[in-house]
């Protein structure tokens, strides 16, 4: 594995995992008032397009990391509506 | 430009732009209590690594889109501390 590949995998892991602590915070506090619903929707559109791109290029790491992001952000979207005041 | 490239550029544009509405919401409401600081820091680490990866691979679109994300998320980080109660 090249140095570039390792940096790429590290970068992808961080950006894919970033929304997980946000989701955990929302589940704990049941508060979503300060979260932008536009941000969540734009992000879901973007990571879904990355999954599609991964399929087009047949790149499993892109598919897996972004499919994980789609799941996390869809869950965040559901909780956003559940906890909306 | 191939179909794959267009999908990739669209995906990158959406994921890079996603945090912009969140930043605008924070500036408008001055409220950040529900935002996860861990999420912001992990995201900054991830997109910074993508910028570095872009330099290693000499891919201008990766450098530019992720440098934009670094800027947006650093600004969000600053406002998180400014508006912290």
From TrEMBL, chains A, B:
<dbReference type="InterPro" id="IPR006603">
    <property type="entry name" value="PQ-loop_rpt"/>
</dbReference>
<keyword id="KW-0812">Transmembrane</keyword>
<dbReference type="GO" id="GO:0051119">
    <property type="term" value="F:sugar transmembrane transporter activity"/>
</dbReference>
<feature type="transmembrane region" description="Helical">
    <location>
        <begin position="6"/>
        <end position="24"/>
    </location>
</feature>
<protein>
    <recommendedName>
        <fullName>MtN3 and saliva related transmembrane protein</fullName>
    </recommendedName>
</protein>
<dbReference type="GO" id="GO:0016020">
    <property type="term" value="C:membrane"/>
</dbReference>
<keyword id="KW-0472">Membrane</keyword>
<feature type="transmembrane region" description="Helical">
    <location>
        <begin position="36"/>
        <end position="56"/>
    </location>
</feature>
<dbReference type="InterPro" id="IPR047662">
    <property type="entry name" value="SemiSWEET"/>
</dbReference>
<keyword id="KW-1133">Transmembrane helix</keyword>
<dbReference type="Pfam" id="PF04193">
    <property type="entry name" value="PQ-loop"/>
</dbReference>
<feature type="transmembrane region" description="Helical">
    <location>
        <begin position="62"/>
        <end position="83"/>
    </location>
</feature>
